Amino acid sequence: MLLAAVVLVSTLAAVLGIALTWPSGDGPRTTLSDAGVRYVSAQVVDTRGQSCDGSVEDVQPDGTVPETVDCLRVTARTSSGREVDVFATAGTEAADLPAGTRVTLEHYPATNGEAEVWAWHDVDRTLPLGTFALAFALVTTLVAGLRGLRALLGLGIAFAVLGVYMLPALVAGQDGLTVALAGSTAIVVVVLYLAHGVSLRTTTALVGTLLGLAMVTGLGVLGAHVAHLQPVTSEDTFALARALGADGVHVLRGVFLSGVVLAGIGVLNDVTITQAAAVWELRAADPTASWRTLTARGMRIGRDHIASTVYTIAFAYAGASLPLLLLLELYDQPLIVTLTGGAFAEEIVRTLAGATGLVLAIPLTTVVAAVAAVGSPPGSGTGGHGHGHAH
User: How many CB atoms lie within 10 A of CB 74?
Assistant: First the structure.
């Protein structure tokens, strides 16, 4: 049928795009890490406060650098039993590092007559973060059962595509738009069918998701063009552009578009699956309903979904951009100047492109699902894997 053909063509195009933009790995890999540094696990033995000379990192709001500042000296024992002294980063207090706390140190071996150097890196958070991740996996599996387990497996595959293909391809300078569309299409095809099963209902949701991704991508490209967005807007992006070489600025343009597409995947999956499930349930409740009737009824649900999801996506971006919002509070310049400049403009374009594509994906998915449901026997497309939201 037509829907299966759309999915098949999209999947083949994604596979072709991945093959054409797969990073070859030729040439030296650019890295921001110091050559020769080793990251060593250690345990805190003791901490003590003392006075240290001020540096540019301690600059005060008036621009002056204090002669001395309070700092925290940490004695840590490495896994080999050696005790070393390092200074923790500013803002770290003794109460944050009780004896036994696991930390990560940087070890610079002796070279060219220079003595070895030990430096503070960070607290070792492997155990707490691993525990949180395990708890999330257990709760998801217990509540959602096998479907939740399949969703977690799909999430793992999605991150594998991101880490093995998309990030290396972007670093290698491959076209960001091609990488984003190929990788995202592969992710949604695998994730939707794995989590929700192979059925006509899932296929209609997948088609809606692909249409939504296309709209988000187009809106992102349009927004970046008309707003004249520049990829280098902060010290971090400047450092990244330099590390990426002569094509660093061009690569960062692709990174922005990739971010727009990736940000839309999760919410698009949610709303399209919900709308498809709603339409199929309406069809089951009234097998004689026409596709126009199903569309009208489905959109009554869809409008509630739009209202709630717009808040979701807006506040998700707001939470991720909270440091930028704090800068907005501190900038002593007109609000419109701040919002339309640099990183703020990027976030606004990213949010509006994602939200607009999301809103448009709901009626498109509803129409596709209604036509598919009317054209198939009642109950043929459920597959027992749909889900719905109450609004």
Answer: 23
